[in-house]
């Protein structure tokens, strides 16, 4: 498996700050979701919600340091683990090349009509493996 970690830069907005002038902690999960868009397109290339195959089962975010709204952030995204119907996404947020937050998100391939998970196909698994990012 080769690793092709995704990277996205985001310019924070003043409106995303809290009363202390730092980026509000509710913003980082939204930025992480935005950075997962290329992975969503593996399942739903046109991002049409009527064709959506994923549900979010779990999200964890650990804040390492405060995030300044005046400085661009960079988010790195990769796949840490692939299961039968789910996969674990690892994300790290940097500001000024310093780790500011990191998180893990579990997504499940889901059949909304049957209301149950469905196995990842070989093709989907192969696409996800391109972004494999093991912990070293």
Major sheet characteristics: 6 strands, antiparallel
CATH architectural type: Roll
Radius of gyration: 16 Å
The CATH class designation is Alpha Beta
Description:
The protein contains 3 helices and 6 strands; from the N terminus they run βααβββββα. With 136 residues, the chain is an alpha+beta fold. It has one domain: Hotdog Thioesterase (Thiol Ester Dehydrase, Chain A, Roll), CATH 3.10.129.10. Strands 1, 2, 3, 4, 5 and 6 form a 6-stranded antiparallel sheet that branches.
Essential attributes:
alpha+beta; globular; about 20% helix; about 140 residues; six-stranded antiparallel sheet; 3 helices
Summed up:
This protein is of the alpha+beta class and 136 residues long. It has helices at residues 27-35, 37-43, 122-129, and strands at 6-10, 54-63, 73-82, 86-95, 98-111, 116-117.
Secondary structure blueprint with pairings:
Layout: E1 6-10, H1 27-35, H2 37-43, E2 54-63, E3 73-82, E4 86-95, E5 98-111, E6 116-117, H3 122-129
Antiparallel strand pairs: 1-3, 2-5, 3-4, 4-5, 5-6
């Amino acid at each position: 498996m080769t690793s092709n970690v995704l990277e996205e830069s985001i310019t924070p907005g003043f409106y995303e700050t809290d009363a202390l002038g730092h980026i509000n902690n509710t913003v980082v999960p939204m930025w992480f979701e935005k950075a997962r868009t290329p992975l969503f397109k593996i399942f739903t290339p046109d991002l049409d919600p009527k064709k959506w195959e994923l549900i979010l089962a779990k999200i964890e975010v650990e804040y390492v340091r405060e995030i300044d709204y005046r400085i661009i952030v960079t988010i790195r995204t990769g796949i840490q683990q692939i299961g039968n119907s789910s996969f674990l996404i690892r994300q790290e947020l940097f500001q000024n090349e310093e780790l500011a937050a990191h998180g893990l998100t579990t997504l499940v391939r889901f059949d909304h009509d049957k209301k149950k998970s469905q196995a990842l196909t070989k093709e989907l698994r192969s696409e996800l493996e391109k972004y494999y990012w093991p912990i070293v």
